[in-house]
Specification:
- The chain has two domains: 78 residues, Jelly Rolls (Sandwich), CATH 2.60.120.10; 78 residues, Alpha Horseshoe (Serine Threonine Protein Phosphatase 5, Tetratricopeptide repeat), CATH 1.25.40.10.
- The protein is 34% helix and 27% strand.
- The protein has five helices and eight strands.
- A hairpin with a 2-residue loop joins strand 4 and strand 5.
- It starts with a strand and ends in a 15-residue tail after the last helix.
Length: 177
């Protein structure tokens, strides 16, 4: 479960599907709690005023939502059909961002290290662990985890080349190019 809020014209739900490395491969149910949103599901727009339920049964469906009114709020509940709930690798990154934004990069790094223990070969978890370690000043750990992420998913090199989280370590000879 997650909840999102946004004002008019702002993304409420980022464009995504549930098939990537960081996803839970979930079916998702969105509940518009307040305001009004415009959902786009596989290229088709849907108006969703408060009280609307939007169910997306196919994890491959591309979905996003934009707030149409200030104070729009949506709750999302996700899971795999017929399976007990498992926390997706993405969840720790989402929580860590909140900690880092609140001024606790050490806590964010520790949260990602715990997630890494659960998902040691997930390139998104490795990448985000490296991000928060870099911001927390853990240069060697950040480089090690970034290199491991790049070995599993070379596209992270492009992300890292412009990610401000790595500004303090990008000049290191061990920074993957």
């Amino acid at each position: 479960m997650n909840a999102f809020t946004a004002d008019a014209g702002v993304h409420l739900i980022e464009e995504h599907d549930e098939t990537g490395e960081g996803s839970g491969r979930h079916q998702e149910l969105y509940v518009v709690i307040a305001g009004r949103a415009r959902f786009t599901i596989d290229g088709t727009e849907h108006d969703a005023p408060a009280g609307t339920l939007v169910f997306i049964p196919d994890p491959r469906s591309l979905r996003s939502a934009t707030a149409v009114e200030d104070g729009t709020m949506a709750l999302v509940v996700g899971g795999r059909a017929g399976q007990p709930y498992e926390v997706s690798p993405w969840e720790a990154s989402f929580a860590a961002k909140g900690m880092a934004d609140a001024g606790d990069p050490e806590g964010a790094a520790e949260l990602m290290i715990a997630a890494l223990a659960e998902h040691p070969k997930n390139p998104h978890v490795l990448y985000n662990t490296a991000c928060y370690e870099a911001v927390a000043g853990r240069r060697e750990d950040a480089l090690k985890h970034l290199q491991a992420a790049a070995a599993l998913a070379p596209e992270v090199l492009e992300w890292a080349s412009r990610d401000p989280d790595f500004d303090e370590i990008r000049d290191d000879p061990e920074f993957p190019a």
